[in-house]
Amino acid sequence: MNIDNSARFGTKAIHAGQSPDPSTGAICTPIYQTSTFVQKSPGEIIGEYDYSRAANPTRTALEANLAALEGGKHGLIYSSGVAATGAVLHLLKSGDHVVLCDDVYGGTNRLFHKVFQQLGIEITLVDMTDHDAAKSAMRPNTKLVWIETPTNPTLKVIDIAVMAEIGKRAGAMVCVDNTFCSPYLQNPLALGADIVCHSLTKYIGGHSDAIGGALITSDDEIHKKLKFVQLSEGAVPGIQECFLFLRSTKTLHVRMDRHCENAEKVARHLEAHTKVEKVVYPGLTSHPQHAVAKKQMRGFGGMVTIYLKGGLGESRKMLETVKIFALAESLGGVESLIEHPGIMTHASVPADQRKKLGIADNLVRLSVGIEDVDDLIADLDRAIG
After folding, report:
1. Which residues, at least 6 apart from 88, have a Cβ–Cβ distance to it below 8 Å?
2. Which of 33, 70, 144, 264 is deepest in the core (most CB within 10 A)?
3. Would you say the pTM of this structure is higher than 0.85?
């Protein structure tokens, strides 16, 4: 179905990049479960398809759908979020410098420091809520500014427009990991970013049943380079996963509204709990960057970070006692998840860096799902004691 850019988000989510199958009228994009495509003559391919590592119609539909949701021109799909991140880093060369948000997903931190730093990429960690520090971190060889907002797991909110301007003045590409918000809540390209990165595994997938990643850009040259890396490395998802993600984008706006509604109620409840030291949620006026969140986000997301009174013992008790919240890594699914970043998702981050960021023994991260919120609150109250 052809829809124009004036269509609103919910319409794009369901229709962008997708048309009924011309041969059968099937309303869902078919799973083109094929590795290769027949050619009319040597080198004369039918349409754009010759080999599924290069392109596949199911993946093409997903790429177009996500590009439309982010307000971008080009979409590229990868086998995971870190594979998408790695594709961006492959645009750099030895001796190039990256300014990296100091509080990022542990797997992102590991990829930058344990894989690409040893290949000669220079990295500076910066608290990007401090714009003076960010400006000071820029060098003549700075080629990439990597932003994650809200950050994982301390939920700092970074002003994308300000950081994009700082990065571009330095002559650097600006990439924003938009996983925590999804395209429904935040659109970094409209705020000046060059590339948007997603772990599709999280909110876009939303059902904890598929792993994937995505990059979206409106820059033709950046897209050309990323497409070459995608083709050459082959870090693409299976077609079944692409189909599942297309299924999921159709309900993204509906799910995100419920995630946001539930998370805010949970955050406000826990903020008043006598055994909770601090609650971090962008929708609370107590959040240090609440004003920035209101400016650039349409909603405040489904992630809540809490600091319990006490130490690791209290955290373990809570994590082992919850019944509706599932103790598991990942986030963004319809079911509520809970985890301990210091032991789980961010264990690969050096201890001194975790301490500096405030990833303490009493920090617990909640991914608030779309269950009945009263049941979620009762579950947390019972577990906290």
Report:
1. 144, 146, 173, 175, 195, 197, 215, 226
2. 70
3. yes
